[in-house]
Design goal:
heterodimer; A: 416 residues; Formate dehydrogenase/DMSO reductase fold; two-stranded antiparallel sheet; B: alpha+beta; 4-stranded mixed β-sheet; 9 helices
Chain lengths: 416, 299
């Protein structure tokens, strides 16, 4: 019976040629990270007074948060709407969100001039600021994600705390702590799961509000009062494609069978979601009459067309095509296009559309900026790999006597 | 409304599982100061009077402890060959504009406009900027986290950043000589100006003055006071001989600079109803979905 698939740590060697390459990219980023903190922002970045924000905000934060949306969309589907057939994907999605948001927070630390004041928004409040809301919600949501992850830690280590040497004295207290956490977490988890969804809706939309204050400095193709709604909807739309992409790629990487039946079913939601995004986009354009800017051929109109055509229209068609939903490669392609579309949309809104009144030098990220961003991505993938090998996250067919502790968390929902 | 509902939010967010160590609301600072006094001060810059001596640049640096060099250096007019902008080591700069037909060039002093409805104050994530009673917009480096959102928000592209400072970088911009005006001194640039191109006074008086000057010399001035209505009005205003756009003044509407972003923020958080309603809605869905599942299983 296939249904005995349950999450378990993956048993496989950590190192592979791909892992070595990722390690090199991550280490390269680490070198530049040292430069940033020793010599300052001016030394490593191409930021200036005309372009105060670069890829660390436009990509690491804006794109990073959007692409971590799989966490809250699958939590909503699996736990809030209680669709138990999707439980197999909630854990990998949660892990991606947890790591994704952790790296968003780290990227912000790199970008802040006074990074040691990063906690200031907790006590100095400015409710008029969209960025304040993003900051508070992201801080809260990271905490929620860590809490949502605790059951996996309990499942892995409960009754099996076994430290070496002197640390073994800690075994008993740790065991007690896990038992206590287990008792508290189980009945309260639904609070955190709903809070996670609400917090996500709030800050995903507020990321769209962030650039509204820049007014005329944002090109009219992207400067719209409905940006918050667009950001929220596109984040919801990109959540499942991220889960599908990860599911297919990690299955391939670990030599498992991709859960195509779940992923195809998940894909069915994406087409209509993209349709809503597209309708909002075109409707907004018609009302604001911003389509006049498409008649000039320049970087803005071209970027806009790439974003809408390859990021929304083509994948929407693919996701509404039965054959594509059943084919692994087409499903992967369609998902990657949606991810690409949201990536380009955030980069367009935060960087390309940003046109200050006095420009002496156009911004293009420096080698160091790119190195650090890529380093973060590489580190995130490596951590993901490490986590799925340590914790019971990826669902696998279970053989009897196989290493996979029988616990009540096997495929547990919030209030299972 | 903003303040109270926000506080409620944070309390609730804390309770609802953020697990966030929110310090007691008493300690938390309120929203940043944003006073729009009737008697706020301003400066009227008459670019038809300015001779481009750049003494204001010198006085500004002296007052703000920036490397100023010798006063003699400022007679060097070669700097006018290209447009300059204020930066972290010069909070004000003068630019020169020469039209082929004109005998005398026009000089335009650039600095923070001290908006009545400032985007930087609205945007700052921690409220490090505030508009004070005198009309000045001042900055508290001790609160600043260095996110540079103020620079993104400013429609005049004024705040500059100390990118070269690795540990304690600051946002640098004209502070309207807040420390001097508190002691009833004139702003340094106004004080040093040898030709009285800068007039310091109550903003509403300056508006009358500007209208009088235009009415008295209609040939001398382009009939428009720049800053009267731009982004909701600014404390610094300009009288020009030419259309402001020709002198690189940004073309901005008369809507307040923060635009609709504040209304959106307040709409999303109106008395915390929308987030709580969403929470309740999701809770309801979760409960019904679960009950439905269970009853199906029983069958």
């Amino acid at each position: 019976m296939e249904e005995f698939a349950k999450p378990a740590p993956i048993k496989k060697g950590f190192f592979s040629p791909g892992v070595i390459i990722l390690l090199i990219i991550a280490l390269n980023g680490l070198v530049f990270a040292a430069f940033r903190f020793i010599f300052g922002l001016g030394y490593v970045t191409n930021l200036n007074d005309q372009y105060p924000w670069g890829i660390w905000i436009g990509v690491d934060v804006a794109v990073g948060v959007a692409l971590a949306a799989g966490g809250f969309t699958t939590a909503a589907l699996g736990h809030v709407f209680h669709r138990e057939d999707y439980h197999a994907i909630t854990r990998p999605a949660l892990l991606t969100a947890m790591l994704g948001y952790t790296f968003v927070a780290m990227s912000v630390t790199f970008d802040l001039g006074r990074y040691y004041n990063i906690w200031h928004p907790m006590i100095y409040w400015n409710g008029n600021s969209a960025l304040f809301e993003v900051g508070i919600c992201v801080m809260s949501y990271v905490t929620v994600l860590y809490i949502e992850f605790i059951p996996m830690v309990i499942e892995r280590f409960k009754h099996r705390v076994n430290l070496r040497g002197l640390l073994s004295k800690l075994d008993a207290p740790l065991e007690k702590l896990l038992t206590l956490a287990d008792k508290i977490i189980n009945p309260t988890m639904f609070i955190f799961i709903i809070a996670g969804v609400v917090l996500s809706c709030l800050h995903q939309s507020s990321l769209g509000t962030v650039m509204i204050v820049a007014g005329s400095k944002i090109h009219p193709l992207w400067q719209t009062p409905v940006a918050p709604l667009m950001f929220l909807l596109s984040a919801i739309a990109v959540g499942f494609p991220m889960v599908i992409m990860e599911g297919i790629i990690s299955a391939k990487s670990f030599g498992l069978k991709a859960e195509m039946d779940i992923l195809s079913k998940l894909g069915r939601y994406v087409g209509p979601l993209l349709g809503v995004c597209l309708a909002l986009r075109l409707g907004d354009m018609a009302i604001r009459k911003s389509f006049v800017y498409l008649t000039d051929i320049n970087v803005y109109s071209i970027m806009f067309l790439i974003e809408v055509l390859f990021g929304v229209i083509i994948p929407m068609r693919l996701f509404m095509w039965d054959k594509a939903l059943r084919s692994k490669s087409l499903l992967l392609l369609a998902s990657c296009l949606v991810i690409f579309g949201v990536f380009i949309n955030r980069v367009n809104t935060y960087l390309v559309a940003y046109t200050p009144p006095y420009v002496f030098e156009k911004y293009f990220p420096s080698f160091a900026e790119i190195s650090i961003t890529l380093g973060f991505v590489a580190a995130e993938i490596l951590l993901f790999r490490a986590f799925v090998m340590i914790f019971p996250i990826v669902s696998q067919p279970v053989k009897v006597k196989e290493y996979a502790p029988k616990t009540k968390y096997a495929i547990r929902g919030a209030v299972s | 409304m903003g303040k109270q509902s926000r506080r409620d939010f944070l309390k609730k967010a804390g309770i609802l599982g953020a697990g966030l160590a929110v310090t007691s609301p008493r300690e938390a600072s309120a929203a940043p100061g944003n006073i729009l006094s009737e008697d706020r001060m301003g400066v009227l810059v008459d670019t038809t009077v300015c001779i481009g001596c750049r003494r204001c640049e010198y006085a500004c640096k002296k007052t703000h402890d920036l490397p100023a060099g010798n006063l003699m250096d400022y007679d060097d007019h070669s700097v006018f060959s290209k447009m300059r902008r204020p930066y972290d080591k010069a909070l004000t700069v003068v630019n020169e504009y020469k039209e082929p037909g004109e005998t005398l060039p026009t000089h335009v002093k650039v600095q923070c406009m001290h908006c009545d409805k400032p985007a930087c104050v609205s945007a700052c994530i921690v409220g490090a900027f505030s508009k004070v009673e005198s009309g000045a917009i001042i900055y508290d480096a001790g609160i600043c986290i260095g996110c540079r959102y103020c620079m993104v928000a400013c429609p005049f592209q004024i705040p500059a950043y100390e990118y070269g400072n690795a540990l304690t970088p600051e946002v640098k911009k004209c502070d309207f000589c807040f420390n001097r005006t508190e002691e009833k001194l004139l702003p340094a640039c106004v004080e040093i100006c040898p030709v009285e191109a800068l007039t310091y006074g109550r903003r509403r008086d300056l508006l009358t003055l500007a209208e009088e000057r235009i009415a008295d010399n209609p040939d001398r001035y382009y009939n428009y006071t720049y800053g009267k209505n731009e982004v909701g009005g600014t404390s610094w205003m300009y009288l020009n001989a030419r259309e402001p756009a020709e002198l690189d003044f940004p073309k901005l509407g008369d809507k307040p600079a923060p635009g609709v972003s504040e209304s959106i923020q307040h709409g999303i958080f109106a008395y915390f109803v929308p987030p709580i309603a969403l929470y309740a809605l999701l809770g309801g869905i979760m409960w019904t979905a679960k009950t439905r599942n269970e009853s199906e299983e029983e069958r």
